[in-house]
Amino acid sequence: MLEMVKERLKSFGYELQEGDEFALTFSIQKVENTIKNDCNTPSIPDGLVNIAVDMAVGEFLTAKKTFSPDSIAGLDLDMAVKQIQTGDTNTVFATGEGSSTPEQRLNSFLNYLLTYGRDQFSCYRKIRW
Length: 129
Hints:
Elements: H1 2-11, H2 20-39, H3 49-67, E1 83-86, E2 89-92, H4 102-115
Antiparallel strand pairs: 1-2
Helix pairs in contact: 1-3, 2-3, 3-4
């Protein structure tokens, strides 16, 4: 999963820096534990791998934003999707329209990465005895 997370970060315009490896590994382990605990499974189900990758990217970028905001200054939010609609859920990123600040766009994007797909956990949840 580490390589998938690295590629996903590159697709958003983030270049890995020296010292990112530990934070990236920690973010991945945190997301893996969250999914395994929520679903009560010993490993991440195949259907949740892409969601786990996005969540790990969100965890990593949130930590970077908190502790080293200058390191993500070059993150290209114009590449982000403007609108996503799944059933009744509608997520809109107002990039390029001037209706939100870059920090607001970043916060919306990070929130999307951290929360999108959590409703799919229930498909893989096992009963605890």
